[in-house]
Amino acid sequence: MSAFGRRSGGGGGNGTAGRPQFGIAQPMKGPAPVQPGQGGSQFPPIEPETLGADDDSFAAPSGPVDRGDAMARLADRQAQSGEQGSSRNEGFEASIHRIKEQVLPRLLERVDPEAAATLSKDELAEEFRPIIGEVLAELKINLNRREQFALEKVLVDELLGLGPLEELLNDPEISDIMVNGPLQTFVERKGKLELAQIQFRDEEHLLQIAQRIVNKVGRRVDQTTPLADARLQDGSRVNVIIPPLSLRGTAISIRKFSEKPITVDMMRGFGSMSEKMATVLKIAGACRMNIIISGGTGSGKTTMLNALSKLIDPGERVLTIEDAAELRLQQPHWLPLETRPPNLEGQGAITIRDLVINALRMRPDRIILGEIRGPECFDLLAAMNTGHDGSMATLHSNSPRECLARMENMVMMSDIKVPKEAISRQIADSVDLIVQVKRLRDGSRRTTNITEVIGMEGDVIVTQELFKFEYLDETPDGKIIGEYRSMGLRPYTLEKAKMFGFDQPYLEACL
């Protein structure tokens, strides 16, 4: 009897040597299989043109926008708010999921989930095929080949993957997934939010998927720890929050990463910056300037940080420090570090600040901080000022000036009592450039400012803007029109570029 044999009843058998087997399914009894191309009796008629149709209830409006009737459009938006709030499985997908709910309990009676977890998805699907056929015969459900393949996929995703989320994770056009309880899931596609056509069985099913995600990275989410940060195997960032903190049920937020690494030149091609701005950023990354990337949530800070990291010399030792590791550097001498939450007794937590302090003892050439959130800002500034030029970090703020103010506040959060003037001077001496990124209301992500930090004037940090994005107009379909302007100023960071032989192209790009 193999590990994958029936838990109850007969049906054992021999399989391929060297791996556990499910056992051989009994011959199907019941109605003859439906031929390919015919629909099973459990499925509603499907029109070909509706198979790929999406629910565009939440899509951006198309066509001309009447600017003179802005208040009427606001009234329409208010009237429509809340009309549709739940994801829906419809048509073919709905039928597959309904049958899955009938098949899954009987399938679990015939297999050992622990043994199933040792197989790949393809191997599991191969082993499932005869057993699924047997279960369908018992339930008197007829499926054609296409329908049975779809059923196999959702069952395998349920056992080895992330259930309904797998479909969204495999869609390359989706950049963010936001699950708001078992009945509602939104996705961001091409910068716009839309309702996804998936649902979870219930809150227990959703919580099980959330726990599967966080457990894979050695973390937990439960009543004692209702918040958790994690990552998927591809590096996508995940945040989970469960009741009682989330009132609609378990909420999962996933920030997907592009499989193809984004470069500065690609961002220029997307319209995120001008050619001159791209030149300045590439030179700044290569010339070991200390750079802070500032922006709001979802503005593209991590994408920018990943792009700039590709300009780092392969001979440099780079340490990255994050709460949930999501940076993906290409350098051969790269060591990622990740924080650790406290255990059940509230002990053993390792914070970002702990890792920054320890990183200084590891002989790094550069330290890259995924995000500055608190007192670790002081230690990062110290690193920038003590031979670790070229360090980078991201920070949540809405403008370069606000970025500097937030850095001052975060240093003051530390247990080191330093006068504000000394903190400001430390920032002015350490930071070379602030790169401001922003997600505009049309969904596009733009580099809106490149600003130098040039010193102190009294007790105020003095900055100089090299580039900025200026809003000009908006197209009828809501697209923002603007231009990237160079201020035409001689950069104070020119000396650093000169040390690496890039002074001439750097100056030409800025003027």
- Supply the number of helical segments: 16
Regarding quaternary structure, what we see is single chain
Secondary-structure-derived class: alpha/beta
Q: What is the general shape?
A: globular
Tell me the domain tally.
Answer: 3
| Mean pLDDT reading | 82
CATH homologous superfamily annotation of the largest domain:
P-loop containing nucleotide triphosphate hydrolases
* CATH fold title of the largest domain: Rossmann fold
Number of strands: 15
How far the N terminus sits from the C terminus, by CA atoms, comes to: 77 Å
Strand content: 15-25%
CATH first level of the largest domain: Alpha Beta
**CATH architecture heading of the largest domain:** 3-Layer(aba) Sandwich
- The parts where pLDDT drops under 50 for at least 5 residues are 5-65
Helix content: 25-40%
Radius of gyration: 27 Å
Largest sheet, spatial ordering of strands:
9-8-10-11-7-12-13-14-15
- Main beta sheet: 9 strands, mixed
